Amino acid sequence: MSNKFCVSLTCAKDDTDKATVAFVVANAAAASDKETMVFLSTEGVHLATNGYATGIHEEGFSPLQELMENFVKAEGKIFVCSPCYKKRGYSEDQVITGATIVGGAKLVEFLTTDGGSPCITY
After folding, report:
1. 78: closest CA among 62, 92, 97, 91?
2. 74, 79, 90, 117: which one has the fewest Cβ atoms less than 10 Å from its Cβ?
3. Total domain count for the chain?
């Protein structure tokens, strides 16, 4: 069984419910001692920008920014699709603490090395 877990997130304010649940699941995986990575692509990359997640709070869940901060504190990794981020006009100096801008090869590496990784997409 793999000791890694990947959450792929393709939405942000366009579907705050999915964005929130993605980080709830990521936190659960990190709390289960899984090496956990969230891959933000397409609209999801907005969440990697300073201040963007502020105020997103789905009923019944912790605020999204808090979930993201807790994930990073639990040593979770946030990888941000470089072409997606640049396409939306962002620069690397806008990236939140704990997020790393990467190419698609980094996702492939995470999913295929050391026994591979299951991946869930929101």
Report:
1. 97
2. 74
3. 1
The residue segments making up the domain with residue 19 are: 4-121
Tell me if the pTM is above 0.70: yes
In the predicted structure, residue 1 carries a pLDDT above the cut 70: no
Tell me the residue type at 76.
G
CA-closest candidate to residue 101, choices 45, 32, 19, 22: 45
Which residue, 36, 60, 56, 40, is CA-closest to 48? Answer: 40
Mean pLDDT of the chain: 97
Distance CA 122, CA 108 (A): 18
The 10s digit of each residue's pLDDT in 37-85 is: 999 999 999 999 999 999 999 999 999 999 999 999 999 999 999 999 9
CATH number of the structural domain spanning residue 98: 3.40.1260.10
| Amino acid letter, 52 | Y
**Measured distance CA(93)–CA(114) in Å, rounded:** 32
Residue 101 host element (H or E): strand 99-102
